[in-house]
Amino acid sequence: MLKRFFEQLSKEMGLAKPLVSNEEGSYSLFLESDLEISLRENAESGITLFTVVAPLPAGKNEEYMLMLMTANLLGRETGGCALGLDKAGKNVTLTTFLSEELNYKQFHEALESFANYTDSWREETTEFIQGATA
């Protein structure tokens, strides 16, 4: 399913060759020089989207983590995605899971929404850092 979606997405983006998966079956989509979204089929035959939003801000971690937890509450400020930390605890991540029953249009809309929430949380993090240093 994901391979078909990436073939169609590659055509829409005007790429000469379709995007291909790595050895682990993940696809990396670079939407900006610093925005990489990783996509892979998960065990439930759905699709997992993952990206690093920003480095965890230094200082005032409790306040920042509370902001992330509040945003995750009911998914209202994350569009149903989940904010978290990477394994090392140094980067803020955004993850979502898409149903196996998606058609391409729904996939494309979900991917666009995911990228928009990533941008939004990058801005929130920048504003938090600026407010913490002011």
Tell me about this structure:
By secondary structure, the protein is of the alpha+beta class. The chain contains three helices and five strands. The mean pLDDT is 89.
Number of strands: 5
Going by helix content, strand content and strand pairing, the class is alpha+beta
The outline comes out as elongated
> What kind of assembly state do the chains in view correspond to?
single chain
Q: Mind describing the biggest β-sheet?
A: 5 strands, antiparallel
Q: Please, how many domains?
A: 1
| Number of H/I helices | 3
The second-level CATH architecture is: 2-Layer Sandwich
Q: Which series of helices and strands comes N to C?
A: HEEEHEEH
What is the rounded Rg? Answer: 16 Å
Strand order of the largest sheet: 1-2-3-5-4
On the 0 to 100 scale, the average pLDDT is 89
Considering the chains and any ligands shown, give keywords for the structure.
single chain; Yope Regulator, Chain: A; five-stranded antiparallel β-sheet; 134 residues; alpha+beta; 5 strands; elongated
Describe how the helices and strands are arranged:
Elements lengths: L1 H11 L14 E6 L2 E7 L5 E9 L5 H12 L9 E4 L5 E8 L5 H30 L1
Antiparallel strand pairs: 1-2, 2-3, 3-5, 4-5
How would you briefly describe this protein structure?
The protein has 134 residues and is α+β, with helices and mostly antiparallel strands.
